[in-house]
Amino acid sequence: MMMIILSQQYNITVDEQYLEWQSAQINGSEVDAIRSVCQTLSNWNIVGIVGPELSSETPITAEYGEKVGIPIVSYSATDPGLSNRSIYPAFYRTVPSDSVATIAIIKLFIRFQWNSCIIIYQNDAFGIDGSNAINNAFNNNNLTVVNQIMFNIDTLTFQSDLKTSSVSSSTRIVILWASSIYTNLILQNALNAGVVGPQFMWILSTSISLNSFNQSFYPDLTGILTIEPSIAKYEPETFPGSTQVNSYALFAFDATCFVPVLSYVDYTGWQQYHGGSVIIWPGQSLSILTGNAQLNGIKLRIGVIPSDPFTMVKIVIDQYGQNQTQLTGYCMDLISLLQANLGFIPNIQLAPSGVTYDGLMGMIPNVYDIVVADTTVTPERREVVDFSQGFFSNAISILILTNPAVQIDLLAFLKPFSTGLWLLILDNEELKEQSIISLCAMSVWYSYGNLIGYGAGFDLQTGPGRLLTAGLFMLNVVLLASYIANLASDLTLQNSQSPISGLDDIKAGKIPFNRLGIQVGTSNEDFYLTEISNNQTNFYPLYSKQQLYDSLLNDIIDARPFQP
């Protein structure tokens, strides 16, 4: 309307006629938009169309304008796809596209050293294209979109649970890309779910009206930023010239007070707004928000499971004579260290008796917020919960019962040499006239003496005799060394015999599968089913470590792979 008045004031005409106007209400419908355009064109000499307002209504109108040869000028449609001149050559707009706003958001994140966000968008052209533009810009600038939550404008519901998706995320910055008619509704849902202030900071694509919310929510709205296009005002005498004027400027507003605090121009970036106030961040804080999930002052339900030496349970008697459960161990020390550094309030809860490690994972987040335990990271568990970096490394060990009854062989010292070699010591012609007992005794005596160097001396008279004697001495050394080495090897093997040497032996069936104990609900069960038995539950089930030891001692099982 203002454009029409100004054209008449400055005598601007088309074919020597003043500009007039016709308006049409299209109610957000593309069909209504094209119907209104057709009716108006059939009754009036239309030279241009101002509008539509929404990005979802604009594409069909812009295409129609190109077909009939009239320009379409929108004052609020920001869909980046409308900038494609090959598809919409007759479309113009007086506001920057969402691509420009995306650049401003990227520089805002860089300015405050934020690195991730959640995007909430409405499921139409405006929301989807805007979300894609932000996502692409984040990827190009090494920033992360942790999650994208779609708001269905037909059912007025979220694609996924808003509270669960927000609380479980590692970031606390939310970018809401929605029209003004849906922004208030989405914010109200977020307020009801408790995912606005003071733990979360929201960046909106449009302004909101505080009158839409109960005053009790006002403190939670503190720190919300809105990013909107703003057009500078110039008087003719102060107009600096078209080359000095940027076509857009974006402002970030503190939603509680609705005052500009930062201004953005493409060639200068974000600057403190002249005359603006300081930014009051969520929680009435003047410190810049880190953007990451904070635990300071937050109560955490921490689940632990008995497992020596990580979590040890001891019953003590307090000063009132009552039995109290005392928890000690490495996990308790780790929780205390984390509490000192992060400032959370721990509520440590011992898992009920009989709960397995897999069952412990399933109790997050309904029963526990986090679990601190000697838990193995497996792909199946990653599908249910997230894991921190491991605080210790472990491998699968096989626990077997050693054989306490070691058989002692009194003739083991004879094994290094063959029977024929031992019989040679009896082949002595000089003793053939002796009795059998004397023959054996003297033969053993001379052989033993020569082996250890105690034999009778030789009366050496010639060189060949000396050479032969040296050869005999060398033979004694070789025989003695060979005897000792073979005897030590035989004794070592006898003491270290084991039915299996590793998992390959278990896979090969060297131990019957029904005599292999597996603790139910642990990573060992998952590994056994997927890597050994081809998902056949043919092992002996165990439900506690005490049952494991009892089963080994009572000869119910032979071995058990050990890992939590």
* CA radius of gyration: 43 Å
Percentage of residues in helical conformation:
25-40%
The level 1 CATH classification of the largest domain is Alpha Beta
Whole-number mean pLDDT: 76
As a percent range, the share of strand residues is 15-25%
Query: Could you give the count of β-strands?
Result: 23
CATH architect. name of the largest domain: 3-Layer(aba) Sandwich
- What is the CATH fold-level name of the largest domain? Rossmann fold
As for the number of domains, it is 5
What structural class do helix, strand and pairing data support? Answer: alpha/beta
- Specify the CATH homologous superfamily of the largest domain: Response regulator
- Spatial gap, N to C terminus: 74 Å
Tell me the major beta sheet: 9 strands, mixed
Shape: elongated
How many helix segments? Answer: 17
Low-confidence stretches: 239-259
**Side-by-side strand order of the widest sheet:** 8-7-6-9-10-11-12-13-14
Subcellular location: Membrane; Postsynaptic cell membrane
Membrane topology: Multi-pass membrane protein
GO molecular function, one term: ligand-gated monoatomic ion channel activity
Protein name: Ionotropic glutamate receptor C-terminal domain-containing protein
